[in-house]
Amino acid sequence: MNKQLHQLGLAEIAQGLEAKRFSSEELTRHLLARIDAHRELGAFLHVDPEHALAQARASDARRAQGAARGALDGVPLAHKDIFVTTAFPSTAASKMLVGEQGGYRSPFDATVVAQLEAAGTVAVGKTNCDEFAMGGSNENSAFGPARNPWDATRIPGGSSGGSAVAVAARLLPVTTGTDTGGSVRQPAALTGVTGIKPTYGRCSRYGMIAFASSLDQAGVFAHSASDALTLIDAMAGFDTRDATSAEQVRDAGGAAVANQAGQIGRDVAAHAARAADAARPLAGLRVGLPKEFFGEGVAPDVAATVRSALVELERLGATLVDVSLPRTELSIPVYYIIAPAEASSNLSRFDGVRYGHRAAQYTDLLDMYRKSRSEGFGPEVKRRIMIGTYVLSHGYYDAYYLQAQKLRRMIADDFQQCFAQCDVIAGPVSPTVARPIGSQTDPVAEYLADIFTLPASLAGLPGMSVPAGFGEAGLPVGLQLIGNYWQEGRLLHTAQAFQAATDFHLRAPEGF
Ligand code: GLN
């Protein structure tokens, strides 16, 4: 079977480049042509072919001299437009950051972007997303929605919708994203690709335009768990410029080790080495099923698909155990107090003075702030700023914000109770398959759909979405795997075993 360049996974790309079957420049040109041919998907906010081709040629030159930097050298990718970049404008999909020069130009690169550049990747541009990463559909982008390649009338999920679409439509092998309350896992599920959000503190947040700082984490989209591992492992590591980045993590054996690139790969290898029986690679793995994740809130097609994935995990040797996360429902009000509270503070810097759009006409300073922010922010961002300002205001702080913080702690404790009984937690990512674009006008109903991704975010735990099959109208369904702190290696090993036995992750939408 002769695969086309856009169908190759990262290992095949690395082999092809090494064997000189194709160059990074050829691969990059091929993918740039596909990106151009599929503009209708709205996956990108900015594409810079010249920059990409220059980086590709530099990679080819390194390789010709025997100085290739490893598995990612010459690999084309794109970054969610939440990461600031020196090479491209950064907009957070907001009019607020689009000035006369076509977008804010950062004087520095986000740490994650810099680390991937140092690994030799070829950045083609920036992907579409919900404005300031607020949303779960990509409909909140100031530049129009991204579209699901499985059905272009449907949402791809969000907020990292463009990054998910680029991978699902085989426009790029991998992309970066961010996940505050599900923004990597949910679009990965709805577009049928593999996505991982690591433990809070694993990747640096430096240069990620802040939404809710206590929740924001970088993540990745890929065609397989193995590819996701390669990318996330190059992004991870302690960074002195992010005070919440972890200096130490726990390895697969539970020992404290330095948080650095490459550690997750070593952990996956340790888990694989322990699997003695090749036919049952997950023997000994206890998979916890929170009863709250399997209730009536889940659409029947999603529930059935997730159940069949669990049967597959059992066949691979895993044991299923019943657990409970009793405060699952409360994670919605808790998140929608804490995240807007932090957002209202973080977004105060977009005032037309320090950052962002400035109104053309105003009477005084206050009027300038008011007009600039009214013109620059979209409706969902304004809603969050108002909610956040309200819950932090004098007289309401104790009733809302403080109460939410207490519950957040209890939600995290509930997970620890579960992890006393199991090694990974499994369930759905999204209660339904992708809905039609424009079909949801009630913001609260939209918030409720985050129910299965918010708990792990509030606890700071790593989570993944693994393609698990197809539901209604042939649309993809994701299996969510949640691990304990620093257990990304266990999640990825589990997903690798599942993907070695299934081919859901290899199926592309028709025409792609
Ligand atoms: N859908 C959630 C929200 O709207 C999560 C967004 C995210 O993870 N960035 O806040």
Short account of what is shown:
The chain is of the alpha/beta class and 512 residues long. The chain has 16 helices and 13 strands. The chain has an eleven-stranded mixed β-sheet, with helices on both faces.
User: Which sequence of SSEs, written as H and E, runs from N to C?
Assistant: HHEHEHEHEHEEHEEHEHEHHHHEHHEEH
Radius of gyration: 22 Å
- The order of strands across the largest sheet is 1-3-2-4-6-5-12-13-11-9-10
- Note the beta-strand portion: 5-15%
Query: What summary fits the major beta sheet?
Result: 11 strands, mixed
Helix count, DSSP H or I runs of 4 or more residues: 16
Query: How many domains is the backbone divided into?
Result: 1
Please name the CATH topology: Amidase signature (AS) enzymes
Q: Catalogue the ligands.
A: glutamine
Helix/sheet category:
alpha/beta
Share of residues in helices: 25-40%
What is the number of beta strands? 13
The unreliable regions are none
The CATH architecture comes to Alpha-Beta Complex
Instruction: Indicate the overall shape.
Output: globular
Q: Tell me the span between the first and last alpha carbons.
A: 17 Å
Please, what is the CATH homologous superfamily? Answer: Amidase signature (AS) domain
CATH class: Alpha Beta
Outline the structure in words.
The protein is of the alpha/beta class. It has one domain (5-132, 152-330, 407-506): Alpha-Beta Complex (Amidase signature (AS) enzymes), CATH 3.90.1300. It is built from 16 helices and 13 strands. The chain has helices spanning 10-18, 24-37, 49-64, 111-118, 161-168, 185-191, 225-235, 263-274, 300-315, 331-346, 365-376, 379-392, 398-419, 443-448, 454-459, 488-501; strands spanning 44-47, 76-80, 122-127, 174-179, 194-197, 217-222, 248-250, 256-258, 286-290, 319-323, 424-428, 463-470, 476-483. The strands form two sheets. It has an eleven-stranded mixed beta sheet with strand order 1-3-2-4-6-5-12-13-11-9-10, with helices on both faces. A hairpin with a 5-residue loop joins strand 12 (463-470) and strand 13. Helix 2 (24-37) runs antiparallel to helix 3 (49-64), helix 7 (225-235) packs antiparallel against helix 16 and helix 8 packs across helix 16 (488-501). The longest helix has 22 residues, at 398-419. The protein is globular, with a radius of gyration of 22 Å. 57% of the residues are buried. Glutamine binds at residues 133-136, 159, 179-183, 211, 339, 450.
